[in-house]
Design a protein that fits this description.
The complex is a heterodimer of chains A (151) and B (132). Chain A has 151 residues and is of the alpha+beta class. Chain A is built from 2 helices and 8 strands. Chain A has a 4-stranded antiparallel beta sheet, with no helix packed on it. In chain A, strands 3-4-6 form a 3-stranded antiparallel beta sheet, with no helix packed on it. In chain A, a hairpin with a 3-residue loop joins strand 1 (46-51) and strand 2. The longest helix of chain A is centred in the N-terminal third of the chain and has 21 residues, at 6-26. The model of chain A is unreliable at 25-41 (pLDDT under 50). With 132 residues, chain B is mostly beta strands. Chain B has a single domain (16-72, 81-120), classed as Sandwich (Immunoglobulin-like), CATH 2.60.40. Chain B has no helices and 9 strands. Chain B has strands spanning 26-27, 31-36, 39-45, 55-59, 62-68, 76-79, 86-92, 103-107, 110-116. The chains are: A alpha+beta (151), B mainly beta (132). Chains A and B meet through strand 1, strand 2 and strand 5 of A and strand 2, strand 3, strand 6 and strand 9 of B. Strand 1 (46-51) of chain A pairs antiparallel with strand 6 (76-79) of chain B.
């Protein structure tokens, strides 16, 4: 069950707005980037988080990144994804850009998970730009049944 | 040496895909388009799309790129920022592209499409001979 917290939600919105404005000030983010939110520094990579009884699953959209260059760390209940997306010219030679919407650069994203993770058994696969991470919940984080004895 | 006529356009007079068609939401992949002396190279980010699902069609000067992702992971949702995607984008091509020789590859969620220029559209150098 995910609780929907109005105040947390409002905080998120305000933080996102600040991110957008700060990005523009620094000139790191172009206006164009705002309309192509795939790679605008913050919020990259896009993440989905699922869970079942034993595992937490994280999916991340990481197009054009070599899987061995993604650094992933798990500490208790925090997952950190970092790396660099290099946008290289596909073919060597003299060229002119007609359109440039794909961004590049270093990224870092930290996710706080609702459970402690048994990091030694974590597992990740990468295919077609999609990273799937399987994070087993730590034993102590799993729900335990307590037998109620009749007195 | 920029050959303005070679520009691939999107938008403008190109018919847009209705976002509500089939109840699906289409996602417009971001692209880079580079022009070289011998052709255009189009690079599109389509993470999560399956190679088999990608189709590239050229019809009546319109280049259409499509593709879709696999099924979403099962389990209870905790946090969601993207859906399995239906990618769609179209571009207007002009005469200068040799359609027969177009080639594409898909690697790590990035589609690279090479569109060679037709012979007539390639830049030519005319040498000026000096007489003695």
């Amino acid at each position: 069950m995910v609780r929907w917290d109005l105040f947390k939600e409002m905080e998120n919105v305000s933080r996102e707005m600040n991110d957008v404005l700060r990005g523009l000030e620094n000139g790191r983010q172009s206006w164009e980037g705002l309309f192509y939110p795939e790679f605008t520094g913050r919020g990259f990579p896009k993440l989905n988080v699922y869970q079942d009884e034993d595992n937490v699953y994280v999916e991340a959209l990481l197009p054009g990144i070599k899987p061995e260059e993604v650094e992933m760390n798990v500490l208790r209940n925090t997952l950190t994804l970092s790396g660099e997306r290099k946008v290289e010219t596909p073919v060597e030679g003299k060229h002119v850009y007609h359109r440039r919407e794909r961004g590049g650069g270093r990224f870092l994203r930290t996710v706080e998970l609702p459970y402690s993770i048994d990091s030694s058994n974590a597992d990740a696969t990468y295919k077609d730009g999609l990273l799937r991470v399987k994070l087993p919940k730590a034993e102590e984080a799993k729900p335990k049944k307590v037998l109620v004895k009749a007195a | 040496m920029e050959n303005k006529e070679m520009t691939v356009q999107s938008g403008g007079n190109i018919e847009k895909v209705e976002k509500t068609r089939n109840g699906k939401h289409y996602f417009v992949p971001p692209v880079d388009i580079l022009e070289y002396d011998d052709g255009l190279t189009l690079v599109a980010d389509m993470p999560g799309a399956e190679k088999e699902s990608i189709s590239i069609g050229i019809e009546n000067d319109i280049l259409v790129i499509e593709g879709h992702g696999g099924v979403a992971a099962s389990g209870e949702n905790i946090h969601r920022e993207f859906e399995p995607r239906e990618y769609h984008r179209r571009f207007q091509l002009n005469e200068g592209i040799d359609r027969e020789k177009a080639s594409a590859e898909f690697h790590n969620g990035v589609l690279t499409l090479k569109l060679p220029k037709a012979e007539a559209a390639k830049p030519k150098q005319i040498k000026i001979e000096t007489r003695h």
